[in-house]
Amino acid sequence: MAFTRTLAVGHCLPIALVTLATVSASVRADDFDGYLKTLFAEKCVRCHGGKEVNGKVNLQQVASERQLLGKPELISDIIGVVDSNDMPPEGEPQISKPDRARLLTILRRMLRTAARAQGNRKPVAIRRLNRLQYNNTLKDLFGLKRDVFPVPEKLMTRAGNYLVSKSGKMPDRVTVASHSLAPKAGLRDVRAFPKDLRASHGFDNQANQLTLSPLLLDAFLRLSVSIVKSPDFTRENVGMWDDFFAEPSGDADRELVIRQRLDRFLHRAFRGLADDVTRDRYAAYVTAKLKQGVPFTDCMKKAASAALSSPLFLYRSTTVNDQDRQFELASRLSYFLWNSCPDDELLRLAKRGELARPVTLNRTIDRMLADRKISRFLDAFPSQWMQLENLLAVTPDPKKSRYFQLDRKYPASLQMVLEPLLLFDAVFVEDRRLIELISPTFGFQSEFLKTWYTSDLTPPRVDVRRIVEEGRMNDIRRRKLQGSIKQTETERDELLQSVRSKLLAARKKDPEAAKPVDLKPYAAWEFNGDLKESVRSLELQARGKVEFQDGMVVLNRSFLISKPLPIDLKAKSLEVWCQVSDLNQRGGGVMGIQGPGDFFDTIVLGERKPRHWISGSNGFSRTDDFAGSTPETKAGEMLHLAMVYTKDGTTTLYRDGKPYGKPFRKGAATFPRDRSSVIFGLRHLPPGGNRHLAVRIDKARLYDRDLTASEVAASATGNGLYIAQKDVDAALTADQKARRNELTKSLTRYQAELKKVPPRRDPNKAQQAVNKRYEDGIRRKLRSQVFDRVPADDPRYGGVITNAAVLSMTSGPRRTHPISRGAWIIEVIFNDPPPPPPNDVPPLKEEDDGKNLTPRQRFAAHRENPSCAGCHSRLDPLGFALENFDITGRWRDKYENGQKVDASGALLRKHDFDGIVRFKSALVQEERRFAKAFVSHMLRFALARELSATDTITVDEIVEKTQQDHFKMKSVIRQVILSKDFVEGRN
């Protein structure tokens, strides 16, 4: 029989021969000589007694029953390897089922005998508070409304209080989040001591892990001072401020108040182990500080800080005093279930000596399980049991898993870690069987996890052919509408032009009229109530409230602006007919050209005369008077103003057709096409100004050239060769009006339809847009905090084994690690961690000549090493059972090289499986084995120490008692607490 695990013979207990002789009477006389010795000789000593002793165990050296009883660790290890079918190994003579059952019965009986031989065990070593316990203790002690310092150890933060639901059922929807990568801040200016490491195969609360070096002691001293000095340590954040730190009333006996306050505080801080001498020493310290003139609140802060530095606070000590053991039990209970100090009720029961009584203890367990502070047990035990902190360091190769770290602040790991923790919460809240942690009928998943498990994580592909065909059809539609628009515009222009020509002809034949001048404006507006009507359809948009009175537009704290002009303007002319109601305002623009940014040229009215205003985007602005101009404008007077800009930079202003003042040359400004607009009613900001001009405008024209003086005069006198639109409208016959309206309506319809025709799409850009929308959706899901209860419809998923969190953290960046996954199962699910690999074993090569090999084929050569074969025979079936899941827990049937995944094997060499579904079914059949492993983990966490061989007796007793209740979660917790090891604090 070749033992594959290390059986430590050197840990034998020094049991006196007389004691062994006495207790061995409880072992049947023929158990060793008549059965075990013969069985060892037949099945074991070839590997564990010859020249080469496997596993450092030589059974030939165990020649008597007394020798075996002196080695409880050896007995426990033999029970383990035989019970798990690890021994004898494959290829060796096997033990029949009846012999195996008899062997286990004898060994368990001998282990109990060896345990009794130990007598009273030594007290448990003192335990320092770890970071989570320290933080929670101070929150409860001071009534803090926030954490003392950031606690990344807390992997899940719950919204609401569903853990203590009176219905005994988890809500179907919960809101949770993981802030471990960016934990919430604590008190300002407070720095935590370093994170405590988790013990190998254990927890971060184990006594042997929580050492106190000189540097760490100094950190604790600094920490205690920084807490009470923090700017956040105030009445608003400290619930017990008025009861401890606040200045007492003026007529109070201060020394009495100090002693009373310290008595309760130290009783809580030192967990019931503070005596009167200790209290008086702190009281004397506070009194001395008061005499030195230190304010009362500061004195009490110093006392609190000193208490936080005391070993009585930092350590959970043990005692041989029976009176104090009740307080130790109170601390064990509170730090097991609440990860914090005992509350007043626990200390009261301990002080009265009632806490250890079975009735009282059971009632206390009920109270503590129903308290909202039970969340702290669920913050610590499940995550460490499942080793989920390893998930936060997972960084899959982006080429293998693009979306895992799509959002650096919210990687997929923060979603994944919540799924198994929520399942544990549900099993606790609903008091379900432990086996439902492995094979549940439901789970809690976010929208992201549903997508992760069920979709191919590939953005939808655009239909290139459809896009091309749509573009072709849209081009045809666009050209057709453009042709209809052009034809309709031509027909309408021809209709209107015919009427305009008749009016022009009539004007030319008038013998009393002067020879008309052909003005040809680029655009003209007649403000008759229709802002969109103009010579060239340059639409105007209103900004602010625009009104119409007497056929004119009224602008008062409002303005009009055209759409961008399709032409460049350098030489230009502005012409406007307007009326100003109040010339005492400090000025405003009547008509101008708005260029890029803030650059514009404007006709200005104000201070009773027209002016010229020019402004630049660099902040330059000026208003110029025309030399020789006089302030002769009257309120209500109708003005005709024209501003002419020549190419050489000369600006000339005309009023009523005549030059107004002298021209000046300031340089010509170019207003570029598609970036310049006509504007009416621009606000003017001279010194002391910042007002709008109140103006009424009758009509206006824009010229893309500089008008001559005769052209301006002709326009002012009405002798310009230009027929206004209202004159054309008045001259239309009824049939012509109907035809014009019909053409205008058709033109409006064609233009609206043309706007709706989408432009041609680039298939590549279309795919990029789809990809972006898909990634934005993934990012949104990564930030979601909502998890829904979902049925376990797919038996491949669900439970603490087959979830993305565990499967991701047991993989490498580029490939899965079956051995890591197998080691996780054997350690977490079976509590049977393998020994570390031998130092002389070469690592498995990531790259090999046979690129088409599967991981199973690669490991086949690795297992040929005799030093590796034993462990691999245990680990490989467990790890390869999960090979259908890739590096981030997504299902696959084949490897990247096309080879089919082989997930077959045998569990404990007795349950054959062909994939993960039957593997999980086999685990369900081993419910008792899993329950025993789980109880061992929980007992280790509750006792805050490693378990010894004789602790397996306590574990077996708990398993027996909880089996009657189908291994329900709360029953397991209760029986762990009721065990002698926990109640008595035995080591």
Low-confidence segments, given as residue ranges, are: 1-26, 532-537, 615-621, 685-690
Q: What is the residue-averaged pLDDT?
A: 84
Tally of helical segments = 33
Q: Roughly what percent helix?
A: 40-55%
Please report which band the strand proportion falls in: under 5%, 5-15%, 15-25%, 25-35%, 35-45% or over 45%: 5-15%
The helix-and-strand class reads: alpha+beta
The largest sheet, given as strand count, sense and whether it forms a barrel, is: 9 strands, antiparallel
Any idea what the radius of gyration is? Answer: 45 Å
**CA-CA gap between termini:** 32 Å
Tally of individual domains:
6
**Principal-axis shape:** elongated
Q: How many extended strands?
A: 24
Layout of helices and strands:
Blueprint: H1 17-23, H2 32-43, H3 65-69, H4 72-83, H5 97-118, E1 127-128, H6 131-142, E2 157-159, E3 173-177, H7 214-229, H8 241-244, H9 254-269, H10 276-291, H11 296-308, H12 311-314, E4 315-316, H13 322-337, H14 344-351, H15 358-369, H16 375-385, H17 412-416, H18 418-429, E5 442-446, H19 447-454, H20 464-509, E6 523-526, E7 540-543, E8 546-549, E9 552-555, E10 559-562, E11 572-580, E12 588-594, E13 600-606, E14 609-615, E15 621-624, E16 638-645, E17 650-655, E18 658-659, E19 664-665, E20 677-680, E21 695-703, H21 709-716, H22 725-731, H23 734-756, H24 763-782, E22 786-791, H25 804-809, H26 818-829, H27 855-862, H28 866-880, E23 905-907, E24 911-913, H29 916-925, H30 927-943, H31 951-963, H32 969-978, H33 980-984
Antiparallel strand pairs: 1-4, 2-3, 3-22, 5-22, 6-21, 7-10, 8-9, 9-21, 10-20, 11-16, 11-21, 12-13, 12-20, 13-14, 14-15, 16-17, 17-18, 17-19, 23-24
